[in-house]
Design goal:
It is a single chain. The chain has 204 residues and is mainly β. It has a domain at 20-156: TolB, C-terminal domain (Neuraminidase, 6 Propeller). It has a four-stranded antiparallel beta sheet with strand order 1-2-3-4, with no helix packed on it. Strands 5-6-7-8 form a four-stranded antiparallel beta sheet, with no helix packed on it. A four-stranded antiparallel beta sheet has the order 9-10-11-12, with no helix packed on it. The chain is 0% helix and 39% strand. The chain has strands at residues 20-25, 31-36, 43-48, 55-56, 64-69, 75-80, 87-92, 99-100, 108-113, 119-124, 131-136, 143-144, 152-157, 163-168, 175-180, 187-188. It is globular.
């Protein structure tokens, strides 16, 4: 579905009996990348913003999910289980040249491209629990940003590239936090007994 920022004009744009989720707008607003299991397992698709002309970009027997566009709209980062472990991959926006970039024995998930196009933030449990990491687009320079015994997941860069928003259960339940892009000064944004997860950030 799509809707206005105030929740109005909610419109269904995919229509099938399977699941479609993790939608991601292209930078120019003309397309939406998303995950769907309409062909038997989770794959990455792209469609026009009105839901027309869906095109399958990945063709794997394993799960491909969580697409995220590069700022110039030329590439898409995503997570894949094709090597029997979730890793971060990058492909061209037409699905060609799918390249492994994270390559770790643990799970690497939830890629989010920095606004300058140079880095990708992601979640990983490589150090025993879920933490937020950042790496160069090439996969080099993988750096841990959070360090605690709780879950930190789903990083999203702010539009200026100076901060990263994420969710954490460090205070007893899942809440939304923001921190500097180097991992310093984490601040809790939500505070309620329910679970707040999977944040996103406006483009301005």
């Amino acid at each position: 579905y799509v809707m206005d920022p105030d929740g109005g004009n909610q419109t269904r744009i995919t229509k099938n009996r399977t699941d479609d989720w993790y939608p991601a707008w292209s930078p120019d607003g003309s397309q939406i990348a998303f995950s769907s299991n309409r062909d038997g397992n989770w794959e990455i698709y792209v469609m026009n913003a009105d839901g027309t002309q869906p095109i399958r970009l990945t063709v794997q027997s394993a799960s491909d999910q969580n697409p995220d566009w590069s700022p110039d709209g030329k590439k898409i980062a995503f997570e894949s289980y094709r090597n029997r472990n979730y890793e971060i991959y990058i492909m061209n926006a037409d699905g060609s040249e799918q390249t492994l970039v994270s390559d770790n024995k643990a799970a690497d998930l939830h890629p989010d491209w920095s606004p300058d196009g140079n880095k990708i933030a992601f979640s990983s449990n490589r150090d025993g629990n879920w933490e937020i990491y950042v790496m160069n687009v090439s996969g080099t320079g993988q750096t841990r940003l959070t360090s605690n015994s709780f879950t930190d997941r789903f990083p999203v860069w702010t539009a200026d590239g100076k901060k990263i928003v994420f969710y954490s259960d460090r205070d007893g339940n899942n809440e939304i936090y923001v921190m500097n892009a180097d991992g310093s000064n984490p601040v809790r944004l939500t505070d309620n007994p329910a679970s707040d997860i999977n944040p996103d950030v406006s483009l301005n």
